[in-house]
Amino acid sequence: MAFVELIDLASERLGGAVLYANDEFFAPKENLLKPSAPVFIEGKYTDNGKWMDGWESARRRSPGYDWCVIRLGLAGRIRGVMVDTSHFKGNYPEQCSIDAAAVEGQPGLEQLLSSDVDWSEVLPVSQLQGDSQNLFPVETDGRFTHLRFKIYPDGGVARLRVYGEVLPDWERIRRRGGEVDLAAVEHGGLVLSCSDMFFGHRHNMIMPGRALNMSDGWETKRRRGPGHDWSIVQLGRRGRIRRLEVDTSWFKGNYPESCSLEAARFEGAQPTESEMSSLEWQEVLPRVRLQAHTRHLFEDEIRDAGEVTHVRFNIYPDGGVSRLRIMGTVAED
Question: How far is the CA of 129 from the CAs of 51, 86, 91, 137, 170, in angstroms?
Answer without folding.
Answer: 20, 10, 11, 16, 40
